[in-house]
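VWFA domain-containing protein (Chrysemys picta bellii), 438 aa
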Amino acid sequence: ETMILNLLRAFWGVFFIFWTAFNTALVDVVGSEQQIPLSVVKLWASAFGGEIKSIAAKYSGSQLLQKKYKEYEKDVSIEEIDGLQLVKKLAKSMEEMFHKKSEAVRRLVEAAEDAHLKHEFDADLQYEYFNAVLINERDEEGNFLELGKEFILVPNDHFNNLPVNISLSDVQVPTNMYNKDPAIVNGVFWSESLNKVFVDNFDRDPSLIWQYFGSAKGFFRQYPGIKWEPDENGVIAFDCRNRKWYIQAATSPKDVVILVDVSGSMKGLRLTIAKQTVSSILDTLGDDDFFNIIAYNEELHYVEPCLNGTLVQADRANKEHFREHLNKLFAKGIGMLDIALNEAFNILSDFNHTGQGSICSQAIMLITDGAVDTYDTIFAKYNWPDRKVSTVQRLFAGKPECSLSMINVCLMKSFLNVFVIIYLDRWDVSLMTKKILI
């Protein structure tokens, strides 16, 4: 920093002297109406350039660098590199690295599924686990607190010198939850089997840092075990279920085609509610999702004609763009649902086969005031032989909470198509739709 300041001071000093001399000469020339001789300008430029070079050499350390390079010149050689081979080598190294990480996750998933499958819920289960907040804490009499047994922590440079236990994981429970709630205790009990997988993963790949398991019940198992410190109010606000990685993993990316009935029977309030429903559905989509909106009567009407036959990423800009186009919809004619269904199935099929989109869950959502047919032939055509399309009908008729849970179950399963029919026969349709894709 001092070198730079000295360089700047010297530069501006020389520049000021040069500028003063130039102005003085210019005044003399203008007063006598004579031109500045070219030789004089060259002299000034040479002098100015020489000073700048001298100052730069003095304060930049370039001569010292040259000297150092000379000392090692005999040990340095220039080799021609094949750029293509270098890129291939780098790509292979990255592939191997990501493969190791994905294999570590796969082993954890398999162990968690197996342990959960074998466990039978016991409401009276008593189990002392290592609570990340309470470990190594003692009461006034010097005894360890409940759930706060001795937990050996040793600073480890691989984990930024934080005190950790590389033999065990521990569990964090949000402050607003009861540490010994039966659901928590049972979950912690069966997930204890992940400890050996955590350790095995770390032994296989020492470059791994944190490994963890976030439960829908709210507890968070972390390896290596570490002590959590509450804030000044004695609160730990962290809840794994609110983290972006948990939300994205739980909901999974989706490809969604939204079909909107704009036949004559949808005039007035029903079309208004339909538009609001679509807007609410868009609110549930995230950056990892892809979608399109098709209105139909006797013909298909893409809400955005420029995006005919494809899906777009559900980022904020695209969703707002589609909302603006929703206002242009109007109702008339007869609803020909069969052509809309064929189009939707074809879009999803093409998008999935080309490897575009989320490559995960797919859904067709139909917003209408009633369908006159079950369209079994269409479902037989696109749903055979794998039967990947689950049909959830009459979403807002009868018991809406049951239908919502069915949709959530369907969307939580990867590589599963869902066909949802939203009948506009309830006033709270738009509010309830917000729960569909969460």
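Residues 27-32, 390-416, 426-438 have pLDDT under 50 and may be disordered. The chain has three domains: 2-73, 98-242, 248-433. ok done for today
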